[in-house]
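hey m, so remember when u said the C-alpha cells were messed up on ur end? i reran from scratch. heres the input so u can diff it against urs
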Amino acid sequence: MEHFEWPPGAIANGVTPGSLKRCEAFLESVRQEGETFFRKCLPDGLDTKPPKIPCADTLRKWMKRNRASGGNPYAQLDLRPLVRRCKRISLRVEEMVEKCISKYYLQKHGLSVAETFRRYLQDAAQEERLLGAKLELASLRSMQRRVNEIDPYIRDLKRYGSEYTRNKWRYSLKGDTSTRVLERVEIDHTWLDMWVLDPVSGVPIGRPWITVAIDRYSGYVLGYYVSFYGPSVASVANCIRNAIFPKEDLLSLVPDLPQPWTAMGIAEQYVVDNGLEFHAKDFLRIMFDLRADVLFNPVRRPWLKPSIERTMMEVNRMLPGRGKVYTPTKNMKPQSPSDSAAILFDDLCAGLTLWAADVFPKSIHHKNLVRPLDLWEEGRLTSPIPMFPLGFEQFDITAGMSTQRTVDGDGVFFKYLRFNSVELQDYLRSNGRKLRLDIRVNPDDLAQVFVNLEAEKRWLPVALQRPSNGYGDGLSLIQHEIIRAEAGKRLTRMNAEEELAQAHERLRCQWGEAVTRGVRVRKHGHLVRLQGLSSARFSGTKARKATGANDIPVESPISEGHLKNLMPIKGFSMAEDYS
C-alpha cells in the first residue's frame, strides 16, 4: 500500500487531522488487527503483506494534505526528487570536469573514470597555481555521476568506435523480404575447424576452406566447394558452378543417399561480403555473363545476411571430434589436431555432401516450424523455371581467369606453360603472325586454355604442350605454382645458382687464358692457313697428316728474319686478312 492510501482509510474510520490522539488510536487498532484491518477497511489492501505503519504525526500531516487538496491523491507524492538544487561546485570547476571527461574518457581506448579523475586533479592543481586561489573540487563520485549522465550509445561510440557500437546496439525489424526460391542467394567462406588427411599418402595436410551458397527464402543449401587455397575467385566460381548444375559427381560419393539433391539454376541476386575476391573484375564479369545481380553486404554487419552466417556455424558443428580444432582454453594444454586427425579428404567431401543433401534440409526451424526441404520443393513448383548456362564448357569459359597474352608461332604462354594447336596457328596465318588476344584459364584444370578468336567471335580450346605426358591433366594452378616453388627450393638447396656462377667464372678464365696465348703466338699467323687446323685433332681420329708428301717444315729462329725475302710473293698476316 502506498502512503497516499492511508488518509482515505483513516477518514473512513472517523479520524480527523486535528486530533493527534485519534490518529494514535487508529494506528494502534491497525497494529492489533493487522492484515484483517486492511482487507476490511481499505479496499485497495496489499496482496502479500501489510505495509509499514507510519507514526501519528506523519498520518496527521498526510490527512491535512488530503483535505487541503480536496482528496487529490497526487498531493501525497514525495516532491523531493523534483526539487532543483544548486550544484555545490562552481561553474568553472564544472567546466573543468566536463573538459577532462571529454579529453581523457571520451576517446578511442580512453582512460577509466578513476584515471580520468587523477588527471583532473593534476589539471586542477595547475589551475589553482595560475589563479593563486583554492578551488572547491569535485569528488570521484561526482565525476562518476557526470559520466553516467552521458548517453550510453554516445559513450560507446566515443570510446570503442562506430563498428563496435553498431554491433552492440543493433536491433532487427522485419528482415529480408524474399518471396520465392533463387531470388536471393548468399555466399560466404569459412575455415573448417578440422584437420584432414591426404587420401593417397595419409599425411595430415591441414584445415581446408569451404565456400557455401544458400537460398535465403528456403534456407536450402545450393552448393559448396572445398579447397586449401582459401577465398579466391576460383573457389567462388566453383561454388557457383556446383550450385547451378546437377550434382551427379558429388552424389556419387554417397551412393545410398535417400534424399536427392535437387538444387540447381542461376539465382536472380547473389549477396556477398566485401572480400577482395568479390570485388575482383573476374567475379563481376562472371555475374555479368550469368545476368545476375550482386549485392555487397555493408562492412562489418554480418547480421544483415544471417542465413549464411548460421549455416557456417552449423557446418563446423557437424564435424566429428577427431582432428577438430578447438578454441584455446586458459590453463589447459590443447590437443594437437594434426596428431588426432583421422578423416580423409575424400571422406570429408562425402560427409559434407550427406549433410548438405539430407541432414541440413530436414532440420526444423524452431520459430516458424518449417523445414528447408519443404520450402524448397514448394518453391520449385510455384516459381519460374530457373535459367542455366549453355553448357559446362561455356561456364568454364565464363568462370575462368581472364588475362591477355601474345600469341605467336610458339602458341600461348601462361605461368611458364605453353599451349598451342594447329587450329590456333591457322588462325594466326590468316590474321597476323603475332596477336594480343584474351584467354580464359580454368584454375582447377590446366590441361587447356581458351583463346578468344576475335575475328571469328568464338573461344578456341588450346591444349597444353608438355614434354612429360599427362602433366597438366587435372593439375590446378595452385599445384603448378607449388611444384615450381618446390623445384626452386630444391635448386637452392643444391646451390644451383652458385654452381652456375662458378661455371661462368671458369669459362671466363678459360677465354682469358686463351686470349693471352693467342696474343703471344699471333706473330706466326702467316702460317695458320697452311696448317689446316680443325677440332678433328682433339677427336678420336688419327693424327693429322700433311697435305703433301712431306710435313710442313717448322720455321727455325735463324730463318725467321729472312723468310720474307725468300718468299716469291708478299707474306700476309691475320691483321691484313681482316682489315
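this time it looks ok to me. Residues 543-550 have pLDDT under 50 and may be disordered. if urs says something different then somethings off w ur setup not the seq
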